[in-house]
Specification:
about 575 residues, alpha/beta, eight-stranded parallel sheet, 16 helices, about 15% strand, globular, binds alpha-D-glucopyranose
């Protein structure tokens, strides 16, 4: 969710200018490993192997020239996604919506907003995607509706309306006083007074997004019916929005006040009574039962900005009966190139008590893009490759955000009047909102980077699109895009990388993150070495304890180029921000 990185963490910029160049083409795995790999693939659910790609539909491809992306635009780009190696797309909401929160304020859960197309366009997208072995995952927003949803119109009409209890209504403490001090994530009180019935309603996000009352069984039924509507149309699962916010404590106690103020000028509080209540897990189990009734292993992905790995682990359920892929915000929010921090978190989640599949990402529609968030201002392109290698070589289901593969950067508005995202309007100038990470996809160097023929796309296309675009980068073997493509091919073809265990190496190294991916019961092992510092580093690996007797590693991919020769493990040098992925079998 909105654990927005408040600042970019610059690293000391020293060292060599990196001329990244392609390493050696990867070798084909031996026949036996390949056979074992195909067997494992048929046994495992698809989401254990898939690379998932998030599309922000307003910004991917505009097919009708209105300046906003749409479903037919996405369909027209499916070949690109297939060729990249994407196996599932999660599309941010496209339901009818007044678009206060750009689709996360839904006024009808079983239709498509005309801005994006029709249900027929959606069906065509699902079918065309299927032909290319790409699954479609819907965004599902259970915590709140739009204030324009007919349910809320009814609920708000009178205190005795049958849908009154579908939302969270309470009396104020006294005249002009909300029921308690609970705050919205988007600033100020989470209660809005409604003059029709002289009560307050609760909204965890904008005032235009009233929270549903998940203690009401009719609400649950209506929402599960909506899930079935999309499963019946062939979707492969849901990304569940803001799931830990579903319940509020009935006692209405004030939240504890913390020191300082937030970006909106409110006192900081701990969201103790509105966040992560145990009842959330009851709902996740019910949602899991809904999807499990469908063939093809539909997946649940949760937006789970949990405070620690222990809380994140609970999302899997005690009997693999909740969410298969809770998004790991711990990894996403490291926000600096720190080998010790990544190592600690990767180890913790890899060993999670539920035995759940890790799910990593670095960018999404709520967070400044990784190119600038992890970049040091000098070596950003090389660092973008390092982050790509981290995402695509760890033991996890990786989640990419559109445009990260071409090194798109955050383009934050410079004038308040240009801001689209309401949190930028409320929080300006400290909180400038999320427009910067939602700018149009950069396809080529033509007008509006090939995104739209309109005079004015909904967000501006930055000048960097002249160089950072799909067409230009496809022709450049050293581009970020070419690097992603090579990594994705390698991940597909190397069983150890795709399915192997994760074995951390050199656990005390402050700069170099290194691990083995090893296929159990086979000699297949891949060594990954990521230098997270601005200086060349020489390290020593002793892999005997990991059952590897080899004394050298042969590169499959290395940037900057390290030559084609095997490198001795006892004296292993990796350049500044360098990436080495190689075989040790
Ligand atoms: C989630 C979405 C975010 C949205 C919020 C409220 O955090 O990712 O974009 O604003 O929920 O629905």
């Amino acid at each position: 969710m909105l654990n927005r990185a408040k600042s970019i963490f610059p690293l000391v910029a020293i060292g060599l200018c990196l001329a990244a160049s392609p390493g050696r083409a990867h070798q084909a795995p031996p026949q036996s490993a390949k056979a074992e790999h195909s067997l494992q693939k048929t046994q495992d659910p698809w989401w254990k192997h898939a690379v998932i790609y998030e599309i922000y539909p307003r910004s991917f491809q505009d097919s009708n020239g209105d300046g906003v992306g749409d479903i037919n635009g996405i369909t027209s780009r499916l070949d690109y996604l297939r060729d990249l190696g994407i196996e599932a797309i999660w599309i941010s909401p496209m339901y009818p919506s007044p678009l206060v929160d750009f689709g996360y304020d839904i006024s009808d859960y079983t239709s498509i907003d005309p801005l994006y197309g029709t249900l027929a366009d959606f069906d065509r997208l699902v079918n065309e995607a299927k032909k290319r072995n790409i699954r479609v995952i819907m965004d599902f927003v259970p915590n709140h509706t739009s204030e324009h949803h007919p349910w809320f119109a009814e609920s708000h009409a009178s205190r005795t309306n049958p849908k009154r209890d579908w939302y969270v209504w309470r009396d104020g403490k006294g005249p002009g006083q909300p029921p308690n001090n609970w705050q919205s994530w988007f600033g100020h009180s989470a209660w809005k007074f409604d003059t029709t019935t002289n009560q307050y309603y609760y909204h965890h996000f904008y005032t235009e997004q009233p929270d549903l009352n998940w203690r009401n069984p009719q609400v649950r039924k209506a929402m599960y019916d909506a899930m079935r509507f999309w499963l019946d149309r062939g979707v492969a699962g849901f990304r569940i929005d803001a799931v830990s916010r579903l319940f509020e404590a009935p006692n209405l106690h004030d939240d504890p006040i913390l020191p300082g103020k937030n970006a909106y000028g409110d006192p900081n509080i701990a969201h103790k009574y509105t966040d992560n209540l145990p009842e959330v897990h009851e709902v996740l189990r019910e949602m899991r039962r809904v999807v499990d009734k469908y063939p093809g292993n539909p997946v649940l992905i949760s937006e789970a900005d949990e405070p620690n790995i222990a809380e994140l682990t609970k999302m899997y359920g005690s009997k693999d009966d909740e969410v298969q892929l809770p998004m790991d915000f711990q990894i996403a929010d490291v926000n600096k190139l720190s080998a010790p921090d990544f190592r600690r978190l990767l180890n913790e989640i890899d060993q999670n008590a539920a035995g759940g599949q890790p799910h990593y990402f670095f960018s999404n529609h709520d967070q400044p893009r990784q190119w600038d968030r992890y970049g040091d201002g000098v070596h950003n392109d090389q660092i973008a490759k390092l982050m790509a290698a981290l995402l695509l070589t760890t033991r996890a289901t990786p989640l990419m955000y559109y445009g990260e593969e071409i090194g798109m950067r955050t383009t934050t508005p410079v004038r308040k009047e240009d801001v689209q995202d309401p949190i930028g309007k409320i929080g300006w100038p400290e909180e400038k909102g999320r427009d910067g990470e939602r700018t149009p996809m950069q396809w080529d160097a033509s007008k509006n980077a090939g995104f739209s023929t309109s005079q004015r796309p909904w967000l501006p296309v930055p000048p960097s699109s002249a160089e950072n675009n799909v067409k230009a980068e496809s022709q450049d073997p050293n581009s970020i895009l070419s690097f992603y493509k090579r990594l994705l091919v390698l991940r597909q073809s190397e069983p150890a990388l795709r399915d192997g265990s994760y074995l951390p190496l050199n656990r005390d190294d402050p700069f170099v993150l290194a691990y083995l991916r090893k296929k159990p019961g086979s000699d297949d092992a891949i060594l990954v070495v990521l230098n997270m510092s601005a200086e060349s580093r020489t390290v020593r690996f002793d892999l005997a304890a990991n059952g590897v007797r080899e004394s050298s590693a042969r590169p499959l991919i290395a940037v900057p180029e390290m030559g084609h020769e095997a490198t001795l493990l006892v004296h292993f040098t990796v350049p500044a921000f360098g990436v080495f992925i190689g075989t040790v079998h």
